[in-house]
């Protein structure tokens, strides 16, 4: 058995209880999942963004794509100009709630090797993005 010493602490200072609502960035550019990789790269370049939020035909967030991911797909041998963003994300990419703790979100991002994680409301609409600091 390990002895754990309990100390009083403020929940504001405790990163375990801090939610992703605090450090998330604004949603940024949102695109439809039927967009091709080439067009998405052009949108990303013109918006000077490192990621794009991807939404379905109902406007619900289905995931996020990064510049690195799109460049990797475009440079692969299997790439064609018909590859759409929905082909990269499948049905729904990983998303999180604004009530998720930072510790949970960081763990999920590390486990899935994500650079960015969309933050969505109860209906699935994008609120922002939790991105790794560069």
Distance separating the two termini: 40 Å
- SSE succession: EEHEEHHHEE
Number of helices: 4
How is the biggest beta sheet arranged? Answer: 3 strands, antiparallel
Radius of gyration: 17 Å
Structural class: alpha+beta
Biggest sheet: strand arrangement: 1-6-5
Query: Percent of residues in beta strands?
Result: 15-25%
Q: Quick one: overall form? A: globular
Low-confidence stretches: 1-13
Kindly report the average pLDDT value: 80
Per DSSP E runs of 2 or more residues, the count of β-strands stands at 6
Share of helix among residues?
25-40%
Question: What do you see in this structure?
Answer:
The structure is a single chain. The chain has helices at residues 37-47, 67-75, 85-89, 102-112; strands at residues 25-26, 30-32, 51-55, 61-66, 116-120, 126-131. The protein is of the alpha+beta class and 134 residues long. It has four helices and six strands, in the order ββαββαααββ. The radius of gyration is 17 Å and the shape is globular. Helix content is 27%, strand content 20%.
Key words describing this protein structure:
6 strands, disordered N terminus, alpha+beta
Brief overview:
The chain has helices at 37-47, 67-75, 85-89, 102-112, and strands at residues 25-26, 30-32, 51-55, 61-66, 116-120, 126-131.
Topology (SSEs and partners):
Layout: E1 25-26, E2 30-32, H1 37-47, E3 51-55, E4 61-66, H2 67-75, H3 85-89, H4 102-112, E5 116-120, E6 126-131
Parallel strand pairs: 2-3
Antiparallel strand pairs: 1-6, 3-4, 5-6
Helix pairs in contact: 1-2
